Amino acid sequence: MRQRATRDQQRLDSGAVTSPKDLENLQKEIVSLAKRQGDLEDVVLEVMERRESAQERVAELTERVGSVQSKIDDATGRRDAAFEEIDGEAATVTKEREVVAASVPADLLKLYDKLREQQGGIGAAKLYARTCQGCRQELAITELNEVRAAAPDTVVRCENCRRILVRTAESGL
């Protein structure tokens, strides 16, 4: 468009066009081209402004993504460390359980494992203040009397949840 306007201006300035009507049309075309060029430059400026705005937004979002990614990486690292710690504790507890299980009679261990499976992982419960800590039910007087009368090495069970009751000084007997 600029080339065309320059060419038309040179034709006008050169005096090659002698007809007044052609001169008038040439001047109108030059004005029209200048107006169109101004409109196009405005559009280009608007597009450039929008592009700048979009680039700023991209930079902002990229920074936010980096921040979120660093938080994710940090949380993942903490999670992995916690898993390692838990796995270590589980291995230690498993070894301790094996040692203790070796000293427990086989029939009692079999009963305990069966109850653990039936009761969601808890096969024995502490008897605390005349209450079974497995089902949180207070034992009836007759049950308490039976537990009191049982020998210390006798296996006693809760009548409600059927777990093995572990008697302590806090049992309330």
Describe the structure.
By secondary structure, this protein is α+β, with helices and mostly antiparallel strands. The chain has 2 domains: 2-74; 104-171, no CATH class. The protein is built from 4 helices and 4 strands; from the N terminus they run αααββαββ. It has helices at 2-14, 20-103, 106-118, 141-149; strands at residues 124-128, 131-132, 156-157, 164-167. Helix 1 runs antiparallel to helix 2. It is rod-shaped, with a radius of gyration of 45 Å.
Could you name the key traits of this structure?
173 residues; four-stranded mixed beta sheet; rod-shaped; alpha+beta; 2 domains
Parts with pLDDT < 50 across at least 5 consecutive residues: none
Main sheet: strand order = 2-1-4-3
Number of strands: 4
Helical amount: 55-70%
Radius of gyration: 45 Å
Which series of helices and strands comes N to C?
HHHEEHEE
Helix tally equals: 4
Shape designation: rod-shaped
Structural class: alpha+beta
* Strand percentage: 5-15%
The overall average pLDDT, rounded, is 88
Number of domains: 2
How far apart the termini lie comes to 105 Å
Biggest β-sheet: count, sense, barrel? 4 strands, mixed
Write down the oligomeric state: single chain
Summed up:
The chain is α+β, with helices and mostly antiparallel strands and 173 residues long.
